[in-house]
Specification:
The structure is a single chain. By secondary structure, the protein is α/β, with parallel strands linked by helices. The chain is built from 9 helices and 7 strands.
Length: about 240
């Protein structure tokens, strides 16, 4: 099948499968480690307590799931779902290495989550919405499996604020990042896809509107690091 006519879901699965072994290393290198602070902030926005249940959607290598496991404690539980098996395998190994017992890793699709309605105190996804071919469907699913009063939290890259910072960021993101990431991973396609996916991605306001249409309310938007990332929070 030609690349340009592949369904987006197939393209994305193949793309992330190809970089799964070095995904975490390259994330830290290319973001200068700042993605860790973004993830920590997003988990904090979940407002979880000991004994709660949390869902990490499009969990990838389970970075957010591992952080969530600390928030819910030994009496709580975390479910990590992704449709890319190589990424999940990396996540499973991380969880086993850390001897974490309260995280369950499941193969599944963000548009049809393998969970009952009203199950989790918080549902979160990180850097994944750009890769979903039906964002409203994924948001409806996240809202469905979240308990009334629970939170849906979305961490995503965004377009930076301010003309000067924006130009500097765009130069790095569009020119340097694909070269560095491609050279180290020996996979240039994923790192060309990254800036292209952000260019065509929804605005903050469009995401907020989709959250409302998914049945969420009290939507808040938190810009991080000059607006190069953003956290959206909605309450069911």
């Amino acid at each position: 099948m030609c690349e340009d006519i592949k369904p987006k879901e197939v393209f994305v699965e193949e793309l992330f499968s190809s970089i799964a072994p070095r995904y975490d290393f390259l994330n830290s290198l290319l973001s200068f480690g700042i993605h860790k602070a973004w993830r920590a902030y997003a988990v904090k926005c979940c407002r979880l307590s000991s004994g709660d249940a949390a869902l990490d959607v499009a969990a990838g290598t389970c970075d957010l799931a591992i952080r969530l496991s600390k928030s819910v404690g030994r009496d709580g539980r975390v479910v990590a779902v992704d449709f890319c098996r190589p990424m999940l395998e990396v996540g499973k190994k991380r969880i086993e290495k850390l001897n974490i017992k309260n995280v369950e890793v499941l193969f599944g699709n963000a548009k049809a989550l393998p969970a009952e309605a009203d199950t989790f105190q918080a549902s979160i996804t990180g850097f994944a919405l750009r890769n979903v071919d039906d964002i409203p469907a994924a948001l409806r699913e996240m809202a469905r499996v979240t308990v009334p009063g629970g939170r849906v939290v979305l961490l995503e890259l965004a377009k930076p604020e301010g003309p000067v910072f924006g130009r500097l960021y765009n130069f790095y993101f569009e020119r340097m990042l694909p070269v560095i990431g491609g050279a180290i991973s020996r996979r240039f396609k994923p790192y060309k896809y990254l800036p292209a996916s952000l260019k065509s991605f929804c605005s903050r306001e469009e995401i907020a509107q989709m959250m409302i249409e998914a049945g969420l309310h009290d939507i808040s938007i938190h810009n991080l690091t000059g607006g190069i990332a953003a956290v959206h929070v909605g309450v069911k």
